Amino acid sequence: MVGKKALREREAGNSGQMVNRHLPLPFPECPRCQLSWSTCEHGDCGGDIEVEPISREVACSNCGSRWEIYDSIFHCRCGHAFRADEIHNAIESLLSVCRQLVDMLETNERAWASARERSESSARSVAAMIVHGLGKAAGFVIGKLLGKFL
């Protein structure tokens, strides 16, 4: 789990537009030592860094700072510091993987929404058939009772 939320929706998904999501930003491979790891920390406060892969905006989950990913400077554990634009291909690969993850999440959400809608629609149909059947049965019984008493 990254920061306060692993995935943060910034816009409602009901509008039909793509939902912007911040995902954990993996630390790219260091050009000097070739180390990489699954998350990045904000150098100013130590918060987890998340990226919105469509807009290329990064944000700190702790202090809320935001900036464009290519304005980032990465500080490796080996002591080497490198700018994002020095590893352009690696950053684009990371963003591509993040975009694919967003696509998969949105496809999954659409499938669940569709299944939920079909389920609710089916439940409404069953309830309507039951109510109709009960109404028909009640009408039959009332008709028989009225026939006996009249």
Features:
1 helix, two-stranded antiparallel ribbon, 150 residues, alpha+beta, five-stranded antiparallel beta sheet, disordered N terminus
Describe this protein's structure.
This protein is of the alpha+beta class. It has one domain (8-149). Helices cover 41% and strands 15% of the residues. The chain is built from 1 helix and 7 strands, in the order βββββββα. The protein has one helix spanning 88-149; strands at residues 8-9, 21-24, 49-52, 57-60, 66-68, 73-75, 81-83. Strands 1-2-3-4-5 form a 5-stranded antiparallel β-sheet, covered by helices on one side. β3 and β4 form a beta hairpin. It is rod-shaped, with a radius of gyration of 28 Å. The N and C termini lie far apart (74 Å). The model is unreliable at 1-18 (pLDDT under 50).
Short description:
The chain is α+β, with helices and mostly antiparallel strands and 150 residues long.
Per DSSP, what share of the residues sits in E-state strands of 2 or more residues? 15-25%
Question: Average pLDDT across residues?
Answer: 77
**How far apart, in Å, are the first and last alpha carbons?**
74 Å
Total strand segments: 7
Biggest beta sheet attributes: 5 strands, antiparallel
Counting structural domains, the number is 1
Low-confidence stretches: 1-18
Cα gyration radius (Å): 28 Å
Order of helices and strands: EEEEEEEH
Helix run count: 1
What is the topology, as strand order, of the major beta sheet? Answer: 1-2-3-4-5
Task: State the helical fraction.
Answer: 40-55%
Structural class: alpha+beta
The 3D shape can be described as rod-shaped
